[in-house]
């Protein structure tokens, strides 16, 4: 009897060992589902970008099945930490957002860009200077002059103190040596759009795609965009760089793998991401929703994360947030 | 006129009608399941809209939207477990009517009727008054939001039947919970004890499931021990509310629908606030004030008409200004843009037929919702007949599934269990769960807008008095807070005048 049980156990162990072996021998990504952890709630910008990206990436990566899992608690930190700590076998990927470059300096997260290997960033929304259409300034220089005449009077809406669009306004203050009044709208850019349209605040420096319908309807205007290149959605709006000010503020979301993921898997993912991000269907998917699609792949993405990490380290020092 | 015909042509395509019906049905199911929220339902089915040509996908989303707000009332009435936060107020009178007085058919009939009426009323407001209401909504700046939040919080004294002091204590607990996490006004973290989980604040839905569902399971379990098993046998004679019921609630119906529409069109507010304010106003003006909390028909119809009226209201700023008032309309805005329809003032001139199609679609969604509601009442009420020994474990499991699936977080499950036990004991001590819920819903809104207003005014409190809308709201809140103090005097005066 004992023998039979032993045998049974041995056979089970052997068979399951063999099965695991089989799984291992299959080339990536055929041995199972690839989980993509999104650190934000369903329906938001990061979630839309993540779902769009994996939907169009699937055909470019034979045999893969992406499973998107939302882990929005802890203000998005929980999800990012979980990706960093996941088994580095390519079967768990995750999205990280620009907050990864900001939170470590504020003592809100103990992970940084160094805990991940980036695959690609499908979106990097720039900060745009948006003002009501009837405001007495029509370009950046006039706005700056107006700010200097009225120190601490210009009310600039942001999405919460220490968050990305507040940082944009802080960087603006430093670059132009002006002093603004920062008004937080914790629920995000929709509330800023309402306040701007209602004439309750003077300006905002935030993602211009949130203001598309008001700009088209002629109630708001955009004076400049803090990016290296002009936006595909607003081709007529100058960048700060063109106007002579080197300022780049961007709210990116990047698909990343845990740090120790084997390089051949990373390369495979990056190649697929490159084809995806450059395809027309992918670009249309984002453009249709008023989002400017990006194709920041691999090392370029790593550089962007590194640059922003350093920049926010400097910028947020001014702010007493610990 | 030709545009309306074109709109009808867009809608009455078999696939679009099927999409609308499917969406409404799925919406009702999502709404009835605690833990699955309106926003989640819409977000998860959003990719399906790509499969539709033109307006079809939007019709499906409208169906989910209306259905889910309504669906929450089913579990609120039958299980005392609000399926969505918007139905928390419905438990106050819905559950007593369904279970204590064994009239689940009447309760569900009233809630279905109220939801349908509220939805249709707000759609008509949307069609007739959208530009005007949008203008009023745009007048709201931080001081007005603060005043609205205070107005909402002042309701605590009226929803906490029994001790007002206990109501206020509950409200304070709620306000405290709303301060946990990153403070958007200073960027600092508060009350997180160094944990990452608490940085985003306590998630509202797990807390709600704990306070209402889990604590209810515990309480019912206790009853089962005390009392021998008795079989409920509830038969339903008719599902449509009786003429006398409709007569009794008619004024409340109109008032709540208007409140819901208005709250809906103010960006950043939603069905949870609308339902509580509607409930409070219904109680204040009712002839049957003392019956509230004890299965009063007006207490069911008010929150349900109020929360469904939000659907039409929330579409107003989204369509006319391109500003989404809540998560659900934000996703719909995305869906419209995918179809090449950019919401905003230009939509009405450039795509008039699509706008009419959305209007008619919203009307149809409410009618389909009512149809499903009334025809399914007989099936839903079977829940009451299920022996507690079988029902309890099912609800018990659902509380865990719901708490986990909301954020895919095991910590949310712990929070749910904690608040479940807290709710159980607070219930025993006759604290009001609704007061806690109102505190959580409105605490962050009151605080952020109070501090934001003071930044705008450079610290001067005058900003709250000099702005008319704000001052009026604050004055009404003060009146309603102090009502228990001066009401007896006024009553005496009236009696003297009569005599």
Provide tags for this entry.
heterodimer; A: 322 residues; alpha/beta; D-Maltodextrin-Binding Protein, domain 2; 2 domains; ten-stranded mixed β-sheet; 11 helices; elongated; B: 499 residues; mainly alpha; two-stranded antiparallel sheet; 2 strands; 1% strand; globular
Protein model, in words:
The complex is a heterodimer of chains A (322) and B (499). Chain A has 322 residues and is α/β, with parallel strands linked by helices. Chain A has two domains: 32-124 and 251-318, Bordetella uptake gene, domain 1 (D-Maltodextrin-Binding Protein, domain 2, 3-Layer(aba) Sandwich), CATH 3.40.190.150; 125-226, Periplasmic binding protein-like II (D-Maltodextrin-Binding Protein, domain 2, 3-Layer(aba) Sandwich), CATH 3.40.190.10. Chain A has eleven helices and ten strands. In chain A, strand 5 (155-158), helix 6 and strand 6 (181-184) form a beta-alpha-beta unit. In chain A, helix 2 packs antiparallel against helix 10. Chain A is elongated, with a radius of gyration of 23 Å. Mean pLDDT of chain A is 90; it is low at 17-24. With 499 residues, chain B is mainly alpha-helical. Chain B has one domain (2-229, 263-498). Chain B is 75% helix and 1% strand. Chain B has helices spanning 2-11, 14-32, 38-45, 56-79, 91-100, 104-138, 142-153, 156-159, 164-178, 204-226, 243-265, 271-285, 297-321, 327-338, 345-350, 352-380, 382-385, 388-407, 410-428, 433-456, 463-466, 468-498, and strands at 181-182, 189-190. In chain B, strands 1-2 form a two-stranded antiparallel ribbon. At the A-B interface, helix 2, helix 3, strand 6, helix 7 and helix 8 of A face helix 3, strand 1, helix 14, helix 15 and helix 20 of B. Chain B: It comes from Sporanaerobium hydrogeniformans. Chain B: This is C4-dicarboxylate ABC transporter permease.
């Amino acid at each position: 009897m004992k023998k039979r049980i032993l045998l049974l156990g041995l056979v089970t162990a052997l068979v399951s060992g063999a099965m695991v072996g089989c799984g291992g021998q299959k080339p990536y990504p055929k041995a199972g589902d690839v989980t993509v952890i999104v650190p934000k709630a369903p329906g938001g910008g990061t979630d839309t970008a993540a779902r769009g990206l994996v939907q169009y990436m699937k055909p470019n990566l034979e045999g893969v099945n992406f499973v998107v899992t939302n882990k929005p608690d802890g203000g998005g930190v929980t999800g990012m930490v979980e990706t960093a700590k996941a088994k580095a076998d390519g079967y768990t990927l995750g999205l990280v957002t620009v907050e990864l470059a900001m939170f470590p300096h504020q003592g809100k997260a103990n992970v940084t860009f160094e805990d991940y290997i980036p695959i690609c960033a499908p979106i990097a929304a720039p900060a745009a200077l948006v003002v009501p259409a009837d405001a007495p300034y029509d370009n950046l220089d006039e706005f700056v002059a107006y700010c200097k005449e009225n120190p601490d009077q210009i009310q600039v809406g942001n999405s919460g103190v220490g968050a990305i669009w507040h940082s944009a306004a802080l960087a603006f203050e430093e670059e132009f040596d002006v002093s603004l009044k920062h008004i937080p709208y914790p629920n995000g850019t929709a509330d800023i759009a309402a306040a701007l349209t209602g004439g309750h605040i003077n300006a905002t420096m935030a993602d211009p795609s949130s203001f598309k319908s008001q700009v088209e309807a002629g109630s708001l205007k955009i004076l400049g965009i803090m990016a290296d290149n002009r936006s595909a959605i607003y081709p007529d709006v100058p960048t700060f760089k063109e106007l002579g000010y080197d300022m780049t503020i961007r709210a990116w979301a990047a698909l990343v793998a845990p740090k120790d993921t084997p390089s051949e898997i990373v390369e495979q993912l990056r190649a697929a991401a490159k084809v995806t991000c450059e395809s027309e269907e992918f670009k249309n998917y984002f453009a249709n929703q008023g989002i400017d699609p990006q194709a920041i792949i691999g090392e370029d993405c790593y550089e962007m994360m590194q640059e922003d990490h350093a920049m926010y380290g400097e910028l947020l020092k001014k702010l007493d947030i610990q | 006129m030709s545009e309306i015909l074109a709109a009808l042509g867009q809608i009455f395509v078999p696939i679009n009608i099927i999409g609308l019906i499917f969406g409404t049905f799925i919406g009702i199911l999502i709404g009835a399941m605690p833990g699955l929220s309106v926003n989640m339902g819409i977000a998860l089915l959003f990719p399906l809209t790509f499969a539709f040509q033109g307006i079809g996908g939007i019709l499906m989303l409208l169906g989910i939207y209306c259905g889910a707000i309504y669906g929450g009332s089913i579990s609120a009435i039958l299980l005392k477990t609000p399926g969505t936060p918007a139905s928390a107020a419905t438990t106050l009178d819905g559950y007593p009517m369904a279970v204590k007085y064994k009239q689940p058919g009447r309760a569900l009939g009233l809630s279905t009727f109220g939801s349908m009426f509220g939805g249709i009323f707000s759609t008509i407001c949307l069609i007739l008054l959208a530009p005007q209401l949008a203008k009023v909504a745009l007048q709201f700046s931080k001081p007005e939001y603060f005043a609205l939040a205070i107005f909402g919080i002042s309701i605590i004294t009226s929803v906490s039947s029994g001790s007002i002091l206990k109501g206020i204590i509950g409200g304070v607990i709620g306000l405290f919970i709303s301060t946990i996490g990153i403070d958007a006004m200073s960027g600092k973290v508060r009350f997180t004890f160094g944990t990452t989980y608490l940085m985003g604040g306590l998630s509202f839905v797990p807390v709600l499931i704990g306070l209402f569902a889990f604590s209810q399971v515990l309480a019912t379990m206790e009853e089962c021990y005390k009392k021998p098993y008795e079989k409920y046998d509830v038969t339903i004679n008719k599902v449509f509310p009786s003429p006398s019921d409709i007569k009794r609630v008619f004024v409340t119906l109109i008032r709540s629908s208007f409140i819901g529409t208005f709250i809906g069109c103010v960006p950043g507010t939603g069905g949870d606030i609308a339902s509580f304010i509607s409930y409070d106003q219904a109680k204040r003006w009712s002839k049957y004030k003392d019956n509230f909390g004890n299965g009063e028909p007006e207490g069911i119809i008010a929150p349900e008409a109020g929360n469904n009226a939000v659907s039409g209201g929330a579409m107003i700023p989204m369509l006319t200004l391109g500003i989404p008032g809540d998560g659900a309309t934000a996703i719909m805005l995305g869906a419209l843009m995918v179809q090449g329809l950019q919401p905003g003032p230009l939509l009405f001139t450039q795509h008039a037929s699509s706008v009419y199609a959305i209007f008619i679609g919203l009307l149809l969604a409410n009618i389909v919702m009512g149809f499903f509601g009334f025809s399914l009442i007989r099936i839903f009420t079977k829940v009451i007949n299920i022996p507690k020994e079988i029902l309890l474990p099912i609800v018990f499991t659902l509380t865990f599934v719901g708490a986990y699936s909301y954020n895919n977080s095991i910590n949310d499950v712990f929070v749910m269990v904690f608040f479940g036990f807290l709710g159980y004991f607070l219930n025993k001590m006759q604290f009001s769960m609704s007061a806690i819920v109102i505190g959580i819903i409105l605490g962050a809104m009151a605080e952020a807008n109070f501090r934001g207003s003071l930044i705008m005014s450079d610290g001067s409190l005058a900003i709250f008095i000099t702005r008319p809308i704000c001052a009026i709201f604050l004055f009404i809140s003060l009146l309603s807070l102090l009502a228990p103090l001066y009401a007896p005097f006024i009553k005496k005066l009236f009696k003297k005048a009569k005599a």
